[in-house]
């Protein structure tokens, strides 16, 4: 039940020495501020890192052939082999739970010899022979024209989709790109589209310097036959590629007479596993933020507890008079606990408001910047964290006032009245 006299007494007690109260409240304010800022910073870093996976099929792996390290069925170790188109079909038919199996071939690369020429301009670029599904596995925006389609695959059309970096290297500014021809290792391909890769990080600029052509046209133009350089494999939402990849390896080992225990014969990069590790890292960072913030908050709570002990000591006479006039122990205890909780909550709310303002300012600054390649994006704290912080404050306020309240009710009225 609301009692104005009680609240007047609380305000008077806390403002009797306002400077001491302000310093005590700052400890809790700072603890809550640090907790919220650490959580927001961790979320901002997580958003920035995950921006690099934006649009990417994270439940994927990339697989390539390597040197065989174990002899098997009379075949020696140290031999090399290549994936075949038949392997792709066998994997699709044998391993349930897979959504996409994309065979790929690759030519040239950054830092190598100039493999792409247009007029007097030339450059060293990665050229990929792909199927249309690859755009669902690797994020890119088609900025003009179109991507590879199955008509290109079936008719073995020599068409190419080039990155914005390739366009900048081979074409003049504002020059029309679509319908023109580029020469890849001496073979002409018509440009039908341009793209820009999504994501963030230092390699994004180089990812704009790639060229995609139909897998069949690539194989025909560069005499690859049915050889597959490597594969991009994606599991469906009901399965993890990490759980399915051993079944995929078994298919390859069986078809190419590789020892079942030869783990070096098939190379792979498990994107889902790496993504899971990143998620685990950010979970750990959140736990660290909670731990550090709680320790800082605890120091503020200890300060409040100490101040309340001093306040009880200073009000010994008052407590003695109230006890002599018939005040119950619960009334005395409740008064001290209420003062402690009030001071803690007010200090904590001030910390939440201050941290919210700081986060708002940071987000306002980021909104005016190009964050596409930044590792820090949209630092936020959800309402659940605020509610948890409020719950911690209430509990902390009770704990901070508990010992002083117990001390207050232990004082005998006669002894309290004698205290100077």
The biggest sheet, with number of strands, parallel, antiparallel or mixed sense and barrel status, is: 12 strands, mixed
The overall strand count is 14
Provide the residue-averaged pLDDT: 82
Total DSSP helices: 14
Relative helix content: 40-55%
Description:
The chain is of the alpha+beta class. The protein folds into two domains: 4-54 and 276-418, no CATH class; 60-269, no CATH class. Helices cover 54% and strands 17% of the residues. The strands form two sheets. Strands 1, 3, 4, 5, 6, 7, 8, 9, 10, 11, 13 and 14 form a twelve-stranded mixed β-sheet that branches. Strands 2-12 form a two-stranded antiparallel ribbon. Helix 1 (4-15) packs across helix 12, helix 2 (18-51) packs antiparallel against helix 10 and helix 12 packs antiparallel against helix 13. It starts with a helix and ends with a helix. The model has no long low-confidence stretch (mean pLDDT 82).
Structure summary:
This protein is of the alpha+beta class.
Strand and helix layout:
Layout: H1 4-15, H2 18-51, E1 60-65, E2 83-84, H3 85-94, E3 98-107, E4 116-118, E5 121-123, E6 126-130, H4 134-137, E7 140-145, H5 150-155, E8 159-163, H6 164-170, E9 181-184, E10 187-197, H7 204-207, E11 210-214, H8 215-221, E12 227-228, E13 230-235, H9 241-255, E14 266-270, H10 271-314, H11 316-324, H12 329-367, H13 383-410, H14 413-418
Parallel strand pairs: 6-11, 8-10
Antiparallel strand pairs: 1-13, 1-14, 2-12, 3-6, 3-13, 4-5, 4-9, 7-10, 8-11, 9-10
Helix pairs in contact: 1-12, 2-10, 2-12, 3-9, 10-12, 10-13, 12-13
Task: Please tag this protein with its features.
ABC transporter permease, 14 helices, two-stranded antiparallel ribbon, 12-stranded mixed beta sheet, 54% helix, elongated, alpha+beta
